[in-house]
Every structure is written in C-alpha cells, then in structure tokens.
Amino acid sequence: MADLAEKSRTCFTQDVSAPELPLSAPLNVGFDYTRSVGPVLGRFVDALRERRVEGVRGSDGRVHVPPLEYDPVTAEALSEFVPVASEGEIVSWSWIAEPVDGQPLSRPFAWALIRLDGADTSMLHAVDAGSPSNVHTGQRVRIRWADETVGHIRDIAYFVPADGPDTETTEPPPPVAKREDGAPVSVVITPIHLRYEHSASPEESRYLRGLAEGKLIGQRCPSCEKVYIPPRGACPTDGVPTTDEVELPDTGIVTTFCIVNVPFLGQKIKPPYVAAYILLDGADIAFLHLVLGCDAADVRMGMRVRAVWKPRDEWWTSLENIGHFEPTGEPDAPYESFAHHL
Amino acid sequence: MPDVAVVGFAQAPNVRSTPGTTNGVEMLVPIFAEVFERTGLSKEDIGFWCSGSSDYLAGRAFSFIAAVDAIGAFPPIHESHVEMDAAWALYEAWLKIRMGEVETALVYGFGKSSAGQLRRVLALQMDPYVVAPLWPDSVSVAGIQARLGLESGLWSEKDLAEVAARSRADAAGNPAAQLSGTVEVAELLDAPYFADPLRAHDIAPITDGAAVLVLASAERAADLVDSPAVITGIEHRVDSPALGVRDLTKSPSTAAAGRALDLDGVEVAELHAPFTHQELILRDALGLGDQVRINPSGGVLTGNPMFSAGLARIGEAANRILDGSARKTLAHATSGPVLQQNLVATLEVLS
Ligand SMILES: [Zn+2]
Predict the structure, then answer these.
(1) End-to-end Cα distance, chain A
(2) A74: confidence class by pLDDT, cuts 50, 70, 90
(3) Is the ipTM of this complex over 0.85?
C-alpha cells in the first residue's frame, strides 16, 4: 500500500503559458418562501383578497399602508385598523425601461411610492403608464386588481392612472396563499427564483477536467504537503492555494460510512445502501461516495475499495463518472493508518 | 477598556467581474498576505476573525464557510460572520478587543456581485411580505429617493453629476478603483437615463471585490505600525424598513450615529454612498462642511464591492492616518436598501 501511494504521487507541471479559464455553469436556485402572516398582515392580505385595502393607525395618529405590526416611533404593537381607498396619488417615482424577472409588469413601467386616500404613509408598487412622460408626482392612480385574488400583495397587479382605462396584465408569477376553505389567510407563499453563473476555482477546474478524462487529480499543499482531492483554493491549515498536481489511483479505503435505510424524494438507489467517506491511496482527505457490490452489513471502516467507472461515453466533468466503489477483497487497512483522517 | 486601532488595510482590485469563485478565496488569499506583510503579524497572532458576506450574492447556503479556508482555519480559530457589510463585522471585532477578550482581530468582506443579477438579488433584503414579492430592483428604489430630493429642490441633476465627476477624478489616485478619469459634468448630463431620474454615472458600478482590515488594541498597535489609526468613536443606527414611513431625503439613522460622536476637526470623510444623491444626504446628516474632504479614494461610485465596500471606507479613512496625511478622519458604512442601516466611525492619530 505504501508503495502504491508513493507511485501515485506523480507530479506534473501545469502549462502556465496557456492558462485555462475556470469551469463555470449556470446555477438556478428556486424555492418558495412560506411565511405565516400573523394578525396584522393577515388582516391586510385577507382584505386584499376581497379587493379592499386596510391600513393601521400608528401611535402618532398616522395611518400606515401597508400596515405595520409595530409602531415605527414607539415600537408599540398596532391593532387599530382603518379602511382606506383603492385610489391615491404618486409621492415619487422612477422609470424602469427594462423590467427584470418577477416584477409586476414585463413592459416598461414606473415604480412609485403611492399614498392611498385615507393613508398617511406610502406603499411601493408599479404603475402601468406606457412612458415616463405619462407619469408625474401628484398623479392620481388606482389599483388594477389581479384577475384572481388569493390574499397576497400581488393581488394588487399594479396601479393605473385613475382616469385611464384598465390595461392588460402581463403575467405575474403565481402569488400563493394558504388557507382552509373559508378561513382567513394564514400563510403567504412567494416563489423565489434566482439565476447565477457559478464558477469553480482554478484548482477545482483542473480536477473536474481530469475527471472527464478518467483521471483523479489532487493537489498538494506547498506548505504542509497534504494532498487534497478535490484540490482547494486554499489549504485550510495554511491558507495558501494548493499547487503541485498529483494523479491519484482509483483505489482507497472506507474511513467511515453510514447505511441509508430511509427513502427520500429524488433518491436514485433503493435503500438500504452505503454512503461512505472514501480516502484514496495517497490522499489526505476523504470524499463522499457510494459503496455497492456487497451487502450493506459487510461494509467496514478500513475496508479496501476500488472505483467502478461508468462507460467512457458517459464521462463528463463530474465525479458521477465513478458510479460507485466496491470492495477489492484485499485485507483491511489497520485503524492506526487512517485514524488521523477521521 | 483598551482603545482599538486599525493597523493594516488591503483590498482586492475592484473589477466588473472575476473568473473566481463566489467564496472569494482567490481574492482573499493575496490581500491577507498583504496585511500580514505590512503589520508583521502572522495568522497565529490573530485573536479573532470576523467576516461579512451574503449567501444571496453567492447563490448558495453558508457560502462564508468556504472562504474560511483562505484564512487557514485549522487548527480551530475564533471566528464569526455577519450577513451584512463587513463594517458590521468590524464592529463585532472592535467589541472583542474592547472587552479585553483578544488583542488583535482580522476583519474581511467579500462578494462576487457579477455571479447573479445584483439589482434583483438585492430585492430580497426588502420586507418579505409586502415589498420583496414585487421584486423591486435596488436602482429603481434609489431613483424614487433621488426624485424626492430633485423635486423638492434639495439637489439638482447637476449637483449629482458633480459628485460623480469629482469621484472619478479622485479615483485616479486609487489603484484599486474600477472607474476613474476626467469627465465633464455637461457630458454626464447629456447621457440618457438608466432609471429616470438616475443616469449611469449616478449609480455605483457592479463590482467584484474583497477587503481586509487588521485591528489591534492601541497598546499592541503602537508596536506594529508607526502611526496606528485609533477608532475614537463608532456608532450604528437603523431606520424603519418601511420605505413609505421614512422621509427618504434624509438619513435620521446616520444623523443619530453622528450626533453620538465628536465630529469636530474631521479632515477627511469616506462616505458609503452607492448613489450620487446619497452622498448629499449623508453630508447633510453628518453636518460635513466644505472644509471636509469627501471620498479622496473616489468612493463606491468608482467601485462598489458588495459586503466589503463599507469596510473599505473604514480602511481608506484609516489609511489617511496610517500614512500621516490626516489627523482625524470619518468613515461611514451602509447596509440594506436606500441607506437603511448606517455606521459611523471616527479615527485619529494615537495620542
Ligand atoms: Zn497546507
């Protein structure tokens, strides 16, 4: 084993004259924000569902719309509800020529602070006005209600000039609210979708590109000489990037493991199966993978395993190229040899 | 309680986009080395580490954990994080030293704004019930604030362009700046609106960047550098998150933070104003007269690395003391939409 580890530490230098850009790929994040509303915001969204607007009176007599749960001056809990109009005036505005995802309108519109008649504070919302020349401070505007109201701020689709016609709604993302039939809204749900361009570090990129060629590339910290796979932007002990490349074999040991017995959404393998920390020969850090090819009950700490690669035409820049690890049948590694890697 | 001083500051180049990761390691490793060299300290000498960054900016949960690699966090270190501009991480570090728990602290902030769509990501710092579900972009909301001042006569579009022109000219002396150069006010005013009433020059650029700052007790600081910048006051306040409740042409929280400090004799002020009109709001809130030199670094209008730009203001204000060019400076940092949360600090020569 020691021999194998020695042999595996083959260094090769990087071609610095032709630096490759790190790998990057789109990363789309999506989830629903699910929030309970409580008595103040609950009453507000319930009224919206009925196409009415209610504000709340503050300690200084001002009527806040949207309602505040606590007074902005005294921090007292507020509970005196005041119905206000669904028409009001623009306090200030800006023009958005190129709306972004999720906004109330997908055609150019005005963002505005709008003070509804009967309210003393203003709310932020969209005004559908066609062009900036049709918007001015002090302008009278009214609510254009969503075609279907559910008890959510998006029940107000947007505002339109008070004397103007209704306009066609562009498609808003579905606002959702939870309630028992006939009961008040208890929870509002807001879908969140964000798009990123995610980049791997230069070190990770070398590793991922290696995988596409069936190679396991680690890197050695120039300071403590530990070999990391995947390599790291900085050694957690020394804070310096790992540099020297080390091609590692696809054999190693199980350092620790767990048997998955519980089925869950998106699971690819039927339980029970083993998720294990695999320490490749010559590496100083283990990574998580699957151990198959034997009874789950037979997996042990120190058990020697080898990678089972998927067919070559399925390889890409991913550790998924290794479908799983399976026992080699060699004698187990003694505990002392990996105790410091646990 | 010991006084606390800034003994070192470094920042990554402010750039429109880096090819690096959202965990900032590539930007942080070189600037850590820079402050260690400048102060003669090593990571073993640092008593407390604190950072500011954002998972929403990175697009993944606990993104600050990966950045911890850059500081060499094994064996275990004493570390903390704020999901705000790192100026607030500095506040936490300042407290640790004041309380006598540690003698030194290293504070850092980082952000890769270019990974997502910044003005849309920032919608998620608004009220999650009645505002964020509309996805109001940060630039539009600042536009609403700017118009309130324009139409009430507090400032003109020319006043705003003058702020932009002065910032770019000053940034010529700042090697980390993203934008710099000589621009004519008239030329700026000829440009089309980006978000009427804001033009491109009124808006801080989208910037990837990172900053690091080293603090030490005043006693320790005297051994490390010739002229430590002692933090003689630091205060932070917050305004209501409800946009329609505030008078957006003012910054009561900045004014309150400033009132709690002694601002007499401030020679230089580094103000964290991501929009031209916000610089005017802040100057007014802090009562800074014409004798105070504003943003000699160029300010964030010439480079706005999210979650480190406020820390960098403190670093720039400290640098004027460290390099002997000023005896008393002011630093301001903001976090949240349209100047919601504000931190003000004064820095002085060690007496
Ligand atoms: Zn190392």
Answers:
(1) 19
(2) very high
(3) yes
